[in-house]
Amino acid sequence: MKKVLGTVAAVVFLMACGGGTEKKATEETAAPAATAANDLSANPDYQKGLALVAASDCLTCHKTSEKNIGPAYKDVAAKYENNEENVKMLAAKVIKGGAGVWGAIPMTPHPQIKEEDAEAMVKYVLLLKK
Question: Are residues 22 and 56 in the same domain?
Answer without folding.
Answer: no
